[in-house]
Amino acid sequence: MDKSPDAFRTISEVAEDLDLPQHVLRFWETRFTQIKPMKRGGGRRYYRPQDVELIKGIRYMLYDQGYTIKGVQKLLRENGNQFIIAIGRGDMAAVEAIAQQKATEAEAKADRAGDEEMLVGAPKAKPSRRFFGMARGEEDGPVAPDGGRLSRDNRALLQETLFDLLECKRLLDQVR
């Protein structure tokens, strides 16, 4: 006898339906705060249909699309649960509608800010000197391909280029 589509599912049922080990579901609960199964006595988990749909979307993004956990967390933060659920269902019309709504909200926010030229969001964090291998005490810098040391100016150019590439990656991740 099959359960109703609105019925709660145990972790073993969800794991079997989505072809995931149970420990992965437990791990994802720690990484995605949006997954909140109801817990009964003894810690037994019961997943709501909404939780199962969200897990399907997360599974699709991680396993089929190659996103990292941080990437999916960012998508959830920026677009919300319904976006990931729609992706998991393969409902591209809903995905496009949600993306269009977010774009409209972003345009309205830019208009309110009065910044007509702002096409790109501000970077989330500036890379540190340590990130680029230029911590204090390493003034002679990284080694160039020819075995010599890079000049301070060349290191600065490489830093700037890498920062631009990281910003491009961030923007591409937003579009996905």
TrEMBL record:
PROSITE patterns linked: HTH_MERR_2
Lineage: Bacteria, Pseudomonadati, Pseudomonadota, Alphaproteobacteria, Hyphomicrobiales
Protein name as catalogued: HTH-type transcriptional repressor CarH
Provenance organism: Nitratireductor thuwali
All copies of domain HTH merR-type, residue ranges: 10-78
Listed transmembrane segments: none
Gene3D superfamilies on file: 1.10.1660.10
SMART domains registered for this protein in UniProt: HTH_MERR
